[in-house]
Amino acid sequence: MAPSFLKPRMTALLCAVLVACPALAQDFSPRLFVNDRVITQYEVDQRIEFLKVLRSPGDLEEQALEGLIEDRLRQTAAERFEQTATEEEIKAGMEEFAQRANLTADQLIAELEKVGIAAETLRDFVTAGLVWRKVIRARFAGTIAITENDIDLALDAATRPGSLRVLVSELVIPVPEGEDGLAQLDLATELSETTRGDSAFAAAAQQYSAAPTAANGGRLAWMPLSHLPGPIGATVLALSPGEVSEPLVVPGAVVLFMLRDLAEDRSAPPIQVSVEWAEFLVPDDPAEIARLRAEVDVCYDLNAQAKGLPADRLTVRTEPASQIPSDVAMELSRLDPGESSIALQRSGFRRFLMLCGREEVAEEPIDRDQVRERLIGQKAEGLAETFLEELRSTAIIREP
Fold first, then answer.
1. 148-268+367-392 with 272-361: one CATH topology?
2. C-alpha to C-alpha distance for 7 and 132, rounded to whole angstroms
């Protein structure tokens, strides 16, 4: 199964893999060692080409090394918990990944081989994700508690998201690029366990938060629950007023939330929110960002700004709010159409995020078993991020 951050790029896969390129050199010399496991230069080269196909922006070599290190850590954990993927599971995972490009697994493999990417590269990529999910289930079996009240609240959120409005405060602790985030996670855990009430949380936000709301004690205005990312919305709903959430790991930060109040209108119709949003990677230059904001009023205006730049500098997407990456979704939740955010960064660029619009779409209610599985998955995702950081902190990663 493809990680969520890769899903939006799969629509461009077909045209990308059809571009001819020379065969890759096969250099099997060691590039890195992760504990007693080797990462070869060939694997790095293969992952770089794979990321090119997925139109991933930024430093591809850095991303390839990072992904392969994480795969080795996951494999070590899989051995520890005696977890493997069957041939049938691997084939099903490859089929699911290929379907995101409207291909079968065999068709995708054939297209990848045209640009020198071996079938084993795709297979290894999918297998690492499969066994990791099994590891998380084995590691945290019995520790993820979902109550009937949790399900009731989540059902309300799913079937009547427009009926629930929340008043929350946020505290965003940034993780500098290149750091493992453990120090930030420890700080967030301490704050979560010791901070109670609005005034104490506001003081902590003013001291530690890097969000634009820090000066205001992290306080956000009333917003529909549907504007929050799915995992964050579920976390907020599980809180009582004045209670602080457990730390949530998002790209580049560790986040805490405190629920201040919750309002409900049970006459609201069932809806799902579809969000259209744009991301424009721009230089981290205040003057350039000020110029851009002065000239751009709506998402369409970004097309002129991106003219002549690489295609991956500007992306415009329309997707359910629940499928937007959590860090981006939090920024978009604060915006009205035509407003922008520059709080996030990627690979040396500022991420100029603009909300193009939101649309409410009718949705069929889901049953309690589906809700329970979704909530378990959301909690497991957060635990998995923390566990992976623990594995990294104890690993010996070295060059030959």
1. yes
2. 18
